[in-house]
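Supplementary Note 2. Why include the ligand at all?

Several targets in our set were suspected to adopt different conformations when bound, so apo predictions alone were not considered sufficient. For every target with a known small-molecule partner we therefore ran a joint prediction. The input for zinc ion is given below.
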Amino acid sequence: MATDVNNSEELILKAVGIRITAVRLLIFRTIRNECSGIFNLAELEERLPTVDKSTIFRTLTVFQERHLLDIIDDGSGSQKYCVSSLDGSDANRRHVHFSCRKCHKTVCLTDVELPRVSLPEGYLAEDVEYVVKGVCPVCNGKA
Ligand SMILES: [Zn+2]
Ligand SMILES: [Zn+2]
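The joint prediction is reproduced in token form.
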């Protein structure tokens, strides 16, 4: 498993089977270098004014299909993307998200153990999303 954080962007994209194009590399670099944690489409579009919006969206979908990004629905109405697995390691790792109802921030809680859900017979799980809603430490006066 690749854990070298110095892995170049190209190697990471290749490793997950994404065909490399100049614009994909640009978008991937921008996400890695400028977006920390969670971002939405509008934020990325602002950082990439020269790139066509539908290209950005399609590229994010490719990254998401290859598990470089996770889509999070935190109830805010705008789809958000999580970038925590963009170092190319543990690309499929799922983690808990916490959404604060006061400051409306959503954060990745990668150290929290995921609960195991056992489904009744006949149900086949394909995807799961853990978003915990509440009040974050800042809004709670604990940070
Ligand atoms: Zn908060
Ligand atoms: Zn996350």
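Confidence is low (pLDDT under 50) at residues 1-6. DSSP finds four helices and six strands in the chain. Comparable summaries for the other entries are listed in the accompanying table.
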